[in-house]
Amino acid sequence: MRYLPLNENDRKAMLDVIGADSIDDLFQDVPEKARLKALVDLPKHQSEQAIERHMAKLSAKSVSAGSVPFFCGAGAYKHHIPATVDHLIQRSEFLTAYTPYQPEISQGTLQSLFEFQTQVALLTGMDVANASMYDGSTACAEAVVMAKRVTRKSRAILAPGLHPHYAAATQTLASTLDIQIDERDCRPGRDDHVIDHINDDTACVVVQSPNVFGEIIDLAPIAEKAHKHKALLIAVFTEPVALGAIKSPGEQGADIVVGEGQGLGVGLNFGGPHVGLFACTKKLVRQMPGRLCGETVDANGERGFVLTLSTREQHIRREKATSNICTNSGLCCLAFTIHMSLLGDAGLKRLAALNHEAACHLADVIDGIDGADVVNETFFNEFTVKLNKPATEVVEALAEKGVLGGVPVSRLTEGNEDLLLVCATETASEEDIHAFETALKEVLS
Amino acid sequence: MRYLPLNENDRKAMLDVIGADSIDDLFQDVPEKARLKALVDLPKHQSEQAIERHMAKLSAKSVSAGSVPFFCGAGAYKHHIPATVDHLIQRSEFLTAYTPYQPEISQGTLQSLFEFQTQVALLTGMDVANASMYDGSTACAEAVVMAKRVTRKSRAILAPGLHPHYAAATQTLASTLDIQIDERDCRPGRDDHVIDHINDDTACVVVQSPNVFGEIIDLAPIAEKAHKHKALLIAVFTEPVALGAIKSPGEQGADIVVGEGQGLGVGLNFGGPHVGLFACTKKLVRQMPGRLCGETVDANGERGFVLTLSTREQHIRREKATSNICTNSGLCCLAFTIHMSLLGDAGLKRLAALNHEAACHLADVIDGIDGADVVNETFFNEFTVKLNKPATEVVEALAEKGVLGGVPVSRLTEGNEDLLLVCATETASEEDIHAFETALKEVLS
Amino acid sequence: QAVKLIFEVGTPRRTGIDLPEPKGRASRLGGHERKGEIGLPGLSEPETMRHYVRLSQKNYAIDLGIYPLGSCTMKHNPRLNEKVARMPGFADVHPLQPISTVQGALELMEQLSHWLMTLCNMPAVALTPKAGAHGELCGMMAIRARLDADGQSQRRRVLVPESAHGTNPATAVQCGFTVDEIPASGDGRVNMDALREKLEKSDDVAGIMLTNPNTCGLFERDIVEIADLIHAAGGYFYCDGANFNALVGRVRPGDLGVDAMHINLHKTFSTPHGGGGPGSGPTVLSDALKDFAPLPFVVKDGDKLKLVEHEGGDAAASFGRMCAFHGQMGMYTRALTYMMSHGSDGLKQATEDAVLNANYIQASLADVMTVAFKGTCMHEALFDDRFLKDTGVDTLDFAKAMIDEGYHPMTMYFPLVVHGAMLIEPTESESKGELDRFIQSMRSLVERAKAGEAESFKQAPVYAPMRRLDETRAARNPVLRWTPPADNAEAAE
Amino acid sequence: QAVKLIFEVGTPRRTGIDLPEPKGRASRLGGHERKGEIGLPGLSEPETMRHYVRLSQKNYAIDLGIYPLGSCTMKHNPRLNEKVARMPGFADVHPLQPISTVQGALELMEQLSHWLMTLCNMPAVALTPKAGAHGELCGMMAIRARLDADGQSQRRRVLVPESAHGTNPATAVQCGFTVDEIPASGDGRVNMDALREKLEKSDDVAGIMLTNPNTCGLFERDIVEIADLIHAAGGYFYCDGANFNALVGRVRPGDLGVDAMHINLHKTFSTPHGGGGPGSGPTVLSDALKDFAPLPFVVKDGDKLKLVEHEGGDAAASFGRMCAFHGQMGMYTRALTYMMSHGSDGLKQATEDAVLNANYIQASLADVMTVAFKGTCMHEALFDDRFLKDTGVDTLDFAKAMIDEGYHPMTMYFPLVVHGAMLIEPTESESKGELDRFIQSMRSLVERAKAGEAESFKQAPVYAPMRRLDETRAARNPVLRWTPPADNAEAAE
After folding, report:
1. Chains with ≥3 Cβ pairs under 8 A against D?
2. In the predicted model, is pLDDT for residue B397 greater than 80?
3. Which residues 183-212 in chain D show a CB within 8 A of chain B?
4. Which pairing describes strands B180-181 and B202-208: parallel, antiparallel, or unpaired?
């Protein structure tokens, strides 16, 4: 077996040193009835070539985003990732390192995490950010739990425009924690109503902008009202590129910002791995979940980095930890950070502008089609279209014409069958948009 | 421009230090009439995404070997290359290093070349090997030039079964060097005749085994006769995997062995880059062209490696050099060496056995088809088929049926329109062979 | 050589990505435009490349040497897996594309599930959990949902051995349970008497969370009895699967009475750890729990596959959704590739080699270091610090000295049940030659420690990219992000 | 830490590749079976990975820092190029597939040719040469073929400046020419008087081989006149294109009277050097030479492309074939990707930045080191060793001391026309920040040399993976391959 360096001579010699007659001796603590007598009923080992063929065939059974005109978003975004990013994250020293518990031989990972935390803080307009969460939805759930710890109140208001998966993940985690979630009505144009629900019982209000329908929400008045009632504003985003164009949540008074970082550096991956971003104000940092990397010095006084404030974490605090989180999304952080380092301020802003222009163009095109109306007043690179047919049927029909034309709202939450989320990034060319237009006209007519 | 770190401020500051008013000042030595007034008539810079799209479209205009049943050989062989190989050769430290002229900071390259040289020597059964040539054909040409230096005679006999491209490359180089090349008659079954042409004027006799028609040649009697007349036997091979199954040229008395190493570690690449292997007996080493890596010690007495015997080379000896060669095929050597390290003796032999079995199976299948006859008595993984139709028409017809069915001999040398070279490696599955059979039957009927 | 931070290399006006000029269309941002500089530095592509290549060389990695972190299973990461994970039908597929366009991806999930269920002999697996701790959450939530469904909502006490990973109690609490610690017995296993006592005449026990092999590297001999006791007491058995690498192909958790167990694909099935993730923690579930599995999941739909994404119907009892989308596809592809590469024969052999390697280390060091518990171990060898008594060297010093020998240290000070613990897990990826060199280095370190060279241990590491780092300072005055230095001109005045 | 050789790690019985068992068919090898052990060691995949990752870390590379080797143009190697080169329509295409199945590959060659011809203002390019020296061979063979075709076979003398790369005289000789050396003038350029003298009343001059900018980093001011003189004398002008990076987009060789010039795709157009290759040396040809271009080449065939592979017809005058197949496709893809990425604007800017960087280094070091020739330079700065006079430090020592500063040394002792030459080529890929650090390091080395610290220079490098290597020993008693050690048991007796 190509991955196993021991041969029979080695095994024999090692058993001799151990003083065991056979490998079975080492499994003597296993109860007799649980000892497998034969191989499990699975195929035997195969050559690399055989497996590559098998997997290539499976891969070919799906339609990849890059192979067709593509307009899906709703929490996962197709962007062009520079080749440099994937090359660097595959370096053995990054790819095959563990969590940096031994800082003297982990500065590569640690320094890049410090850079990541700073970039996320800058992007969100917040004081500090952690070293990532699993994804945006779990970051959102953790933020609500954190708000309870901070405020010692347990009622959370989730805005109607919060991505339904994020709301669901939050409800799942919160349900066991005695956190009440206010009911929501997931339809476009209702986020501003959250303001009316905030009162002294409110621990936090969770608002996404751009929201799941693509609408950009003014967070400042919500923050003001929340703060008046000693509640936290948790601002959510699912597309980091949007923050290159729109006001940061930090500028608008958010206390905690959570979001999905996949759009920078990380591929679609059918939904995972992605990378959760988590930022907050300085005064909340000791209530934050997840790893944190901090600056310090070594015995020679040289600047270096370590994991820090780990008394918040499960491996030190056990049942008193701020979260049970252990593994983060390290390699995706690195990809995010490299992509962002390449972009810089200027590149990110231009990328955002190109996304917005592509979406504006697409919105004009769709508005010109009978049976399709753009619902949004505002949007960044994604918006909601009201169709004259059920959206799930429309996207299947579009797929047959070789266009992946967006995400039906009903995939995210039941109801709203006539609403379709459509996204255009810098990867949508003029020809792609034209192909979409042609196909959509045919499907809707 | 993403690859250029200087910005306008930098440029201005640097010009100030230089004391130049503008960049034009630095080009003042260029004659007025040769100074370009405007940009050359070529497109402006483009985004990574735009270029990827352009190139992907171009790529899609060819039929890749891996996408169809594939049976081409004739000097370039499709084998499965482990993912480890491509991963390792892409490491920055290997990929972006120069020729190892500073050994203290080039041991990675140097040690792997030493390993390469040893592997090639073992594989060919020779004493020593150099650190590679451009490819097998240029290695062959250089070997003939070397034979003239060694023997001080200038007549070279090229066996009829020598790959016509190798013969042509040799003739091109030899033509300017006052080396006479005996005429050849490139048809199957004539290699043994070379023995009759060897005489005291002969500097070398160049014999390929397996030859271009796939036939395995007994080199020992040729070596014996050559040595009797103080001529060198230059043994050639185009498929390194063959040496896992058949006698090495070294065992049979070859003085110089040259060959193509592409089959191990290196892809087809439409013909380049490949990697030329060059080995010889110990006593000829100082007449060898190309780089050599040798063992030595550093100031602490630690084992290390350096480029050595460079007094043979152009950068030291200029017009008295053994060759004008400078760049070798370093990264392909590394790929070869890694692939070979993974295989080892046991793996190489098994790989060779699988190749031979696939070819035997294919030969049986083809012999069973009306209008196609296998010409060979012996072969390794490639053989010659006599067809009842012109081979170029047959392969085009097969291509239309989605099979790349071999190489017409007439692609290599004019004439022999009815001969087709067919190769089966471990990548040819039962289904591939069956698809070939079906298609060939249709085409020939 | 120190590597600057990107903030000290790039500037906000520079960029390493060429993009076409925007055309300047009218904005639909509704007045929410971001104004002013964000402060993100841009680096040209060559600067970026060099920055991260240099940084990378400051890391230790499994590709450089043995990485014997106990409980972490740092095994070889095959590059075939990386290649497969990047195939466009897996890497470049959107999670919400029409179902007809993702059949290959769903099929892969189905195949992965089949392998995991077969290796565990369990009837169901929830793929979505995004890491081990997330898998724990999944299992414990399923247990809670089952208890609630059975009207047993008073069951909120979870038994956790004191040797457990910190994630276990943290998870229990995050699910709204309380934690009740079980002490260890003298042989490093669950104290059965204590366990029985805790279960006696109680109706508040929700279950037990137990790692097996446990964090001392020992198989819980009484595991079947433990399962029976828990079940008899009305609770469920959550098994922490972090150490599944000691069992694959030889022991099936389903045969031990386990109700739920997460599987760290990034440990047992070799998806690379990437400096801290991403991971993946599919959780196998028993018959008792399988109806409570989280959304979404794949089901057959004629000869096609489909996703169940909403509550009700097939998911009537589901405890809900744990995250957006369907989990860690990128890890699924790697893990399945790994499993198919090994096959049932190779997986069994890998398990045996992992256990053999650990026992070889334990046996080879038993005379100079102190083995924590007598007898053979499973896939990791646990030592305590008795052999360092009176040397002036402690576990931390010893670990840092290993760095100077060219090794990554073992897990230290865990499990908590032994003093100054050193937990060594070599995995099956190490050759006998590497192990022999490692053992030789360890022996010479012990010799040096006993020879009174404590001072040199306190100085270690000296051959690493950095000397020992001041962790206290980092925690006392946290600097968690870069801030621009005060303007030099001002400072000079 | 020393890395063992694979022969000391693996064994012939181990393998790191799983292959199915052969079925044991009858052999058609005709009795030529290889018997016995070959002696090739096999390593498991993890051992292989670790071996080469460890080895790699002993290399310096452009991705780690400035690599200022004069004449080598070590610039950034974009990874986009690597990605494109691996696209299946380029990497996984057989050179002898039916022409209808390789149209994309041929089109790429056609596009590359267009870029190269346009940048050079030359009417033809031969793509096949596999490296710079091979391109020289191509150009000189075309010249020879043209002379022979014109009945000028007595023209066998080639003029080569003494500052030329060693490949120039070696190539001339390999083409059956004799070499006649032209001395340099006091300003580092061709001595025009000497040149005129060599051309006077001769009918045996085949041509001149001239590098421009020359190996002193200087543009040959009189180049147009040189070309005119050579042509008037009945010879041809071969230009060594190694230094084309100083001209791209600003000066076209075709405008200077050049008849042939090779282009190092692995220098100017950034295909990675890979520790010594592979390279690619397409050679542009003037009207006078283009009919003699080597086989094979791409021509239009209606709206398709085809390959001319045999003599006669379109290739009636071709001097023949230089190698198997069509040259270095892998380099074509990378080079075209590079050129399209830059565009005509970016290529010009890169040229200007390369020249600017070199002049910046020259200007910044002119007060402490000795610039070989007055005035501005092109893309590389040449220093001699006068500044080291009486310090006891020579060029080699100085270079080795640079290693301890974290840099790869510059080219030393070349060109031969100045004493103790140091030729520094930064390329356009270096930022001002990197250059400033480099300049600072160089200045401090000079200071140390002048302060009498010669001994420490002699010891250098001390911070490298190895100390100075004994090259004399390697050459005197060449050990060119590993051999198994004499049996230890025997040795002990």
Report:
1. A, B, C
2. yes
3. none
4. unpaired
Interchain pair A80, B426: CB under 8 A? no
Strand, helix or coil for residue A322: coil
Same CATH topology for A65-80+345-444 and A83-339: the answer is no
Which residues does chain C have within 8 Å of residue B3's beta carbon, measured at their own beta carbons?
A: 44-46
Angle, CA B244 vertex, CA B243 and CA B250 arms, to 5°: 40
Cis link prior to A210 (omega < 30° from 0)? yes
Contact between B83 and C44 using a beta-carbon 8 Å cutoff? no
Q: Which residue of C has its CA nearest to A311?
A: C475
Chain D hits for B64, Cβ within 8 Å: 88-89, 91-93
- Per-residue model confidence as pLDDT tens digits over D399-418: 999 999 999 999 999 999 99
CATH number for the domain formed by residue range(s) A83-339: 3.40.640.10
Q: How far does C247 lie from chain D, in Å, by closest CA? A: 21
Would you tell me which residues 392-431 of chain C have a C-beta closer than 8 angstroms to some C-beta of chain A? 399-400, 403, 408-409, 414, 428-431
Q: In whole angstroms, what is the distance from residue C264 CA to residue C245 CA?
A: 10
Tally of CB atoms within 10 A around A187: 16
**B-chain residue closest to A79, CA distance:** B49
Q: Domain limits of chain D?
A: 80-339, 350-476
CATH superfamily of D350-476: Aspartate Aminotransferase, domain 1 (3.90.1150.10)
- Residue of chain D nearest C47, judged by CA positions: D431
Q: In terms of CATH architecture, what is A65-80+345-444?
A: Alpha-Beta Complex (3.90)
Phi-psi region of B236 (alpha: psi -120 to 50; beta: other; left: phi over 0): beta
Is residue B281 within 8 angstroms of chain D, CB to CB? no
Per run of 10 residues, the mean pLDDT along chain A (length 445 residues) is 96 98 96 94 97 97 97 98 98 98 97 98 98 98 96 94 96 87 82 92 96 97 98 98 98 98 98 98 95 97 95 83 89 98 97 97 97 97 98 98 97 94 97 98 95
pLDDT one-digit tens code per residue, A264-318: 999 999 999 999 999 999 999 999 999 999 999 999 999 999 999 988 888 888 8
The total of other beta-carbon atoms located within 10 Å of residue B442's CB is 11
Cα(D239)–Cα(C473) distance, integer angstroms: 63
CATH number of this structure's domain B65-81+345-444, picked from the four choices 3.40.50.2300, 3.90.740.10, 3.90.1150.10, 2.40.50.100: 3.90.1150.10
Fold of the CATH domain D80-339:
Aspartate Aminotransferase; domain 2 (3.40.640)
SS3 A54: helix
User: Any idea where the domains of chain B sit in the sequence?
Assistant: 65-81+345-444, 83-339
Instruction: Say which residues have a Cβ less than 8 Å from residue B182's Cβ, sequence separation at least 6.
Output: B155, B156, B157, B158, B197
Q: Hey, how many other C-beta atoms are within 10 angstroms of the C-beta on C193?
A: 10
Residue D392 contacts residue D380 (beta carbons within 8 Å): no
Q: Does A36 touch chain D (CB under 8 A)?
A: no
Q: Does B45 touch chain C (CB under 8 A)?
A: yes
Tell me whether D18 touches chain A (CB under 8 Å).
yes
Sign, Cα dihedral of C424, C428, C431, C432 = positive
Strands B419-423 and B407-408: what pairing?
A: antiparallel
Nearest CB partner across the interface for D429, out of C46, C57, C79: C46
Q: Does C53 touch chain D (CB under 8 A)?
A: yes
Specify the CATH number of the domain C346-471: 3.90.1150.10
Q: Is A2 close to D20, i.e. CB distance below 8 A? A: no
- Residue ranges of B 89-128 with Cβ closer than 8 A to chain D: 89-109, 111-115, 117-119, 121-123, 127-128
> Tens digits of per-residue pLDDT, A200-211?
999 999 999 999
